[in-house]
């Protein structure tokens, strides 16, 4: 397993281009199954999760190619609705395939995605939404089988503004007969990107970005070309790293309007930001100030995906901060590792109490999940001494070569891959 070795203590400085959004690209890749033919997607990052999704599309019969930041997907030859168990286990987001496969083949079999490091990750809202559209669902402890001779538009209310459930229902309803009105829908920018992509295919959807999305079902969709939006969580991670190392960093090809809640928190911490179109500069020349209380919740509130990263900044701030996590029940796994680096954080249920310290120190730490791993990288960059981050594959799911990202900003950081045995050419 790869490790990252980080020599901390130097302020980040320079300019970085933000890559395309993982959480927009994944549902959009799944949505390609809704039409037959060749799609051309641009600004698609090289991430483990993207490669797994392309693998699954390939195993379902599509032809996929990922060159530089462009992906071509030809779904004309798609011929299966059984999502392979081994790939489903690698990435629970394969759940996004239910809607498109049900719409295309009238049937889909997936494996129970199960929970992960950050929580139980239930899918009841996905299943209830598809049932409302006419699907019959047969669940066993291992598999989920869905059938629908035809999908019919319906009024659906989500008990929680689930991103994935919103996306699955949008995709299933796009070619259903009649209209679907989805209320208490998630409002994330990735939902808006999916709506724009589906409408580029000929769908008739309005309301993404608000809590009510109306999907007028259409007969047929066509392949299209599309550019994925920038990754707001990668951008936010870089912004927080710039502040935590008291540096100055300019981000290009980002969308500052997707980061308003983070910009607000950084300003409260005394971090300067300046914006000009898709360019944003972040600088922090003095010790950050504590932020009394931050609560994560669905967009446009503070994103759960930046909770662990901003906790590193608060760990170095002057004063006492409280972080409340309301989206995932298990998203404090980074706290123990940060405390091993000298942070002063205690937790009680879904609240973390952070007393800022003057400095944290390098240590050997373990990434438990994608964003916790990113937080530990930020901690290593800000710490005094050397930090080794293990289980880096978690981080590679959502950051395209994170060491290259930060090396380009002056970080002293290397990736160590286990020495692979030389190929035995004898046999
Ligand atoms: C998406 O996950 C993102 N993943 C997550 O990003 C992100 O943290 C999350 O949305 C919230 O913004 C992708 O887009 C691939 P949810 P998703 O459905 O769709 C509960 C990252 O780091 N829930 O909004 O799985 C669930 O248990 C990842 O990039 C149900 O109860 O999130 C959780 O507590 C991590 N029943 C909460 O809702 C359901 O049917 C939020 O889940 C579905 C969800």
From TrEMBL:
One of its GO terms (molecular function) is UDP-N-acetylglucosamine 1-carboxyvinyltransferase activity. It catalyses: phosphoenolpyruvate + UDP-N-acetyl-alpha-D-glucosamine = UDP-N-acetyl-3-O-(1-carboxyvinyl)-alpha-D-glucosamine + phosphate. The modification 2-(S-cysteinyl)pyruvic acid O-phosphothioketal is found at residue 116. Keywords: Cell cycle, Cell division, Cell shape, Cell wall biogenesis/degradation, Cytoplasm, Peptidoglycan synthesis, Pyruvate, Transferase. UDP-N-acetyl-alpha-D-glucosamine binds at residues 92, 305, 327. Its main location: cytoplasm. Its EC number is 2.5.1.7. InterPro entries: Enolpyruvate_Tfrase_dom, Enolpyruvate_Tfrase_sf, MurA_subfamily, RNA3'P_cycl/enolpyr_Trfase_a/b, UDP_GlcNAc_COvinyl_MurA. GO terms for biological process: cell division; cell wall organization; peptidoglycan biosynthetic process; regulation of cell shape; UDP-N-acetylgalactosamine biosynthetic process. It comes from the Bacteria. One of its GO terms (cellular component) is cytoplasm. Belongs to the EPSP synthase family. MurA subfamily. Cell wall formation. Adds enolpyruvyl to UDP-N-acetylglucosamine. This is UDP-N-acetylglucosamine 1-carboxyvinyltransferase. The gene is murA.
């Amino acid at each position: 397993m790869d490790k990252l070795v980080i020599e901390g203590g130097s302020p980040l400085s320079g300019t970085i281009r933000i890559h395309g959004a993982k959480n927009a690209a994944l549902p959009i890749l799944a949505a390609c199954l809704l039409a037959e033919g060749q799609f051309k997607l641009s600004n698609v990052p090289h991430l483990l999760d993207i490669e797994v999704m392309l693998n699954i599309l390939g195993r379902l019969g599509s032809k996929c190619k990922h060159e530089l930041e462009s992906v071509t997907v030809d779904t004309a030859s798609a011929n299966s609705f059984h999502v392979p168990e081994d790939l489903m286990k690698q990435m629970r987001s394969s759940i996004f395939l239910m809607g498109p496969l049900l719409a295309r083949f009238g049937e889909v079999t997936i494996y129970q995605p199960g929970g992960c490091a950050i929580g139980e990750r239930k899918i009841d809202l996905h299943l209830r939404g598809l049932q409302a559209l006419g699907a019959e669902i047969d669940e066993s402890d291992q598999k989920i089988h869905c059938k629908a001779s035809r999908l019919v538009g319906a009024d659906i209310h989500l008990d929680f503004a689930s991103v994935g459930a919103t996306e699955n229902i949008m995709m299933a309803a796009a070619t259903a007969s009649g209209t679907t009105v989805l209320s208490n829908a998630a409002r994330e920018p990735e939902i808006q990107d999916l709506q724009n992509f589906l409408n580029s295919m000929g769908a008739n959807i309005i309301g993404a970005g608000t809590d009510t999305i109306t999907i007028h079902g259409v007969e047929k969709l066509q392949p299209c070309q599309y550019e994925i939006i920038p990754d707001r969580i990668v951008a936010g991670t870089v912004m927080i790293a710039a502040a935590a190392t008291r540096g100055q960093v300019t981000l290009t090809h980002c969308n500052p309007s997707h980061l308003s809640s983070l910009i607000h928190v950084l300003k409260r911490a005394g971090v300067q930001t300046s914006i000009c179109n898709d360019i944003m500069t972040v600088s922090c020349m003095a010790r950050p100030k504590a932020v009394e209380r931050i609560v994560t919740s669905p967009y446009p509130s503070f994103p759960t995906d930046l909770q662990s990263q901003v906790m590193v900044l608060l760990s170095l701030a002057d004063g006492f901060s409280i972080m409340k996590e309301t989206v995932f029940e298990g998203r404090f796994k980074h706290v123990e590792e940060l405390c091993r680096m000298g942070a002063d954080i205690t937790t009680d249920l879904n609240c973390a109490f952070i007393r800022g310290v003057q400095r944290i120190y390098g240590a050997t730490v373990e990434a438990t999940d994608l964003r916790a791993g990113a937080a530990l990288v930020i901690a290593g960059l800000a710490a005094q001494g050397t930090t080794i981050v293990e289980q880096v594959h978690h981080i590679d799911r959502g950051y395209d070569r994170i060491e290259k990202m930060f090396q380009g900003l002056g970080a002293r950081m290397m990736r160590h891959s286990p020495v692979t045995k030389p190929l035995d050419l004898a046999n």
